[in-house]
Amino acid sequence: MQTQAASRANANLVQSLGVDGRILTMLVVLAVVWTVFQILTLGQPGQFLSPQNLWNLSVQTAVVGIMVGGMVMVIVTRQIDLSVGSILGFSGMIMALIQTVPPLGWGGNWILALLAGLLLGALIGAFQGYWVAYWAVPAFVVTLAGLLIFRNATFIVASGRTIGPLNDNFKVLGGGLNGSIGEFWTWVVGLVVMAYIVYQALTNRSRRIKNGLPVRPVWAEAVVNGILLALTLAFVLVMNAFPYPGTNIPRGMPVPVLITLVVLFALNWVALNTRFGRYVFAIGGNPEAALLAGINVKRILVAVFALMGMLAALAGAVQAARLNFVTNSMGNLLELDVIAAAVIGGTALAGGSGTIVGAALGALLMSSLRSGMVLMGMPTEWQNVVLGAVLLAAVIWNTVYLRNRR
Amino acid sequence: MTPLVEMHNISLRFGGNQALDNVSVNLYPGEVVGLLGHNGAGKSTLIKVLSGAYRADSGQIRVNGQEVQIRTPQDAQAQGIETIYQTLALADNLDAVANVFLGREKVRGVMLDEDIMELEARKTLDRLRVKIPSLRLPVAQMSGGQRQTVAIGRAIYFKARCLIMDEPTAALGPEETQKVHQLIKALKAEGVGIFLISHDLHDVFDLADRITVMKNGRLVGTVYTQDVTHDDVLGMIIGGVMPKNVRPADQPAPRA
């Protein structure tokens, strides 16, 4: 009885906070994992919660983080994309070839390379989406074919060579030595985000009150937005606490991390505030209803796959820039990390349910586990066993959560 | 008087199956036409042609006397034809507000105008007098009656001139059924024309001014409700025969 009352009180608390229970769980799990790793690495020179490790962790999360929001949309529409690792590799290779191999290979055309790569990724995605949407070929098969084709096309276009080194300006995308925005701009970004959080909270609330709609209690508003502000501030402080080697000049936020945050923010905004986002979820919830409501389901599916392809290409640019050389195995098996991050973040493979924020936290949880296990010197085989177990646990928890909600 | 909707000689074939064979029906403003027939008689197919979900192979559709092309659900909606499907056609993962406005969202610029949609949805659903405590819960978490209300609210919010209701009370309890009956009468009084598909003869005799019966994709005939008995209608449904000595019924029923 006591526990039942307590769990009801908990549910009420979560409800009045107006936050998805699964996202709250993710945050708690992340906090626990970080704390445990910090304790386990206390005696070492590189502690888990040191600015250096957190800074590296953010860069390591970037590539999956850029793609995971797109994967959420794909999975929400009841589809899957197994080809993102291959699209990443292929478009990364094309971008490397454009900027290094004559006649195109001159210093200034890294922008052309980037744009061509993004366009290529979007076209590949749209091509795969076309077969899925207009010919009803299962996405699993279409993108499995894409995985094979583009992985090996990567080898073919470069004749198996490793291509590089890449243009110095292009390499900024990877977050290497010149790839951070510095202390000042990190503060600017942080303050803009904080101002936006406050502005959003105030205008939303006053508009809903003006329209006579229910609002969260003031304390809930304060708690949720307070936590968001604190997290933003902590992020800025950590990014500015890691200096360039041999100096005390802070690096600030790495460019790939900035790209990831912009992508995730944009996707989350689109998913929640536009017709396109609404239709993505409607198609996942009930494709027939979406059709009968006059939604152009096929076109939306093609757009979702094209978006996924473009994000894979963007991730390919970041990965290539980070490595400086593109090999024909770049991005191999990365589709599994992206799908796992989306699923750990609460995206249901049955479709219709998932959040960009949850998936971003899923990606962060995965890279945190990997980074922590590396710090502890755990063998790769055991790292993968742990990650697999976490994936299974997350799916089970998600299933239970969705069942209890009905 | 010009019919609100006229479907003339509609035919549709699915592979080897003649789903609709030269079917003609009409509907006048402010009347309810009951559409009856066995499963597979072609009622739902006919209705889906009118609502834009299927396209007929041949035949014409006229709205207020004007021939129109209905190729998509939007075309039907643009003509003021709204459909409440038997399956309700709700996206279960979305909330009531999103479902009422699905496909026709209110936007400011590119941004969904959630506040306006929530206010309007609340107003519309209140009119149906079924209590829905939160419009922001996924409809999967609602009762059958509440879900039905959302589906009906979606049709009436957009000021239907012609409403198609496919088994609107099949999933409802007696009290909720009564509310749907009241609603149908209220809409009728406002001049809305309603096609009512139902298995329940009592429902149809209670509400319909005329009854159209189909069998094996063909029209058996249309009669005035006041001219026939339950047995007559059963004879039409099962035997496909018209009762003797009934008036032709392609005009609205004379007001009693």
TrEMBL record, chain A:
Protein's name in the database: Xylose transport system permease protein XylH
Membrane topology: Multi-pass membrane protein
GO cellular component: plasma membrane
Organism listed in the record: Meiothermus hypogaeus NBRC 106114
Function, as annotated: Part of the binding-protein-dependent transport system for D-xylose. Probably responsible for the translocation of the substrate across the membrane.
Alphabetical list of InterPro entries matching this protein: ABC_transp_permease
CDD domains in the cross-refs: TM_PBP1_transp_AraH_like
Origin: domain of life: Bacteria
Localization per record: Cell membrane
Membrane-spanning parts: 21-42, 54-75, 82-101, 107-127, 139-164, 184-202, 222-242, 254-272, 300-318, 338-365, 385-402
Keyword field: Cell inner membrane, Cell membrane, Membrane, Sugar transport, Transmembrane, Transmembrane helix, Transport
GO terms assigned for molecular function: transmembrane transporter activity
From TrEMBL, chain B:
GO terms, molecular function: ATP binding; ATP hydrolysis activity
Designated name of the protein: Sugar ABC transporter ATP-binding protein
UniProt entry tagged with the keyword Ribosomal protein: no
Pfam families: ABC_tran
Membrane topology: Peripheral membrane protein
SUPFAM superfamilies xrefs: P-loop containing nucleoside triphosphate hydrolases (SSF52540)
Species assigned in the record: Meiothermus hypogaeus NBRC 106114
Keyword annotations of the record: ATP-binding, Cell membrane, Membrane, Nucleotide-binding, Repeat, Translocase, Transport
CC per GO annotation: plasma membrane
Major localization listed first in the record, in broad terms: membrane
PANTHER family named among the record's database cross-references: CARBOHYDRATE TRANSPORT ATP-BINDING PROTEIN MG119-RELATED, GALACTOFURANOSE TRANSPORTER ATP-BINDING PROTEIN YTFR
Domain ABC transporter: 5-241
Compartments where located: Cell membrane
Transferase keyword on record: no
